[in-house]
Amino acid sequence: MTIHATHSAPEPHRHGEVQGRKAGVVIASTRAAAGIYDDETGPVITDWLTEHGFEVFPAMVVPDGEPVGAAIRALLTQRPAVVITSGGTGLSPDDRTPEVTLPLLDREIPGIMEAIRRAGAAKTPLAALSRGYAGAAKSTFIVNLPGSPKGVMDGLAVLDPVIGHLCDQLEGGHGH
């Protein structure tokens, strides 16, 4: 009698389940908010969140600056697990997303932004110019991604393997 073993690739190790968790998206773009051009990053982020099982509020496209902070604060009243912003992280005078995000955070998670910038820098040296924060506002994870579709995709690739575990921990889970 011969026994044949079949070997298949192991399933990827995933921490946390996000089903049923809510998420918000804030796009910082004065021109997109004015209808001068279409937002290209909101759909990318919304699709990624949906694919990961989040219930996503409609993306909010707002002018750069304080309207971004107001949009994040409005989302926080809905107690989402995640808020992802895109845009306003450069060096132009109206790029103020980090400045309006930081006061809303109870705790920073610097390793996330370090990893996002590192992932971007592997593709373009301009990633080093992107500013932004990642952190927690109570049990909500907030992260500032760049305003370009490629920069957003790089950031989402960094979040991909950790988002469920991150949400679990912010909600009080202690699994490792």
UniProtKB/TrEMBL annotation:
Annotated segments matching region Disordered: 1-20
Keywords: Molybdenum cofactor biosynthesis
Coiled coil (residue ranges): none
Pfam families attached to this UniProt entry: MoCF_biosynth
Basic and acidic residues composition bias: residue spans: 10-20
Family annotation (SMART domains): MoCF_biosynth
GO terms (BP aspect): Mo-molybdopterin cofactor biosynthetic process
Domain MoaB/Mog: from-to ranges: 24-166
Pathway field: Cofactor biosynthesis; molybdopterin biosynthesis
Protein name: MogA/MoaB family molybdenum cofactor biosynthesis protein
Organism: Arthrobacter nitrophenolicus
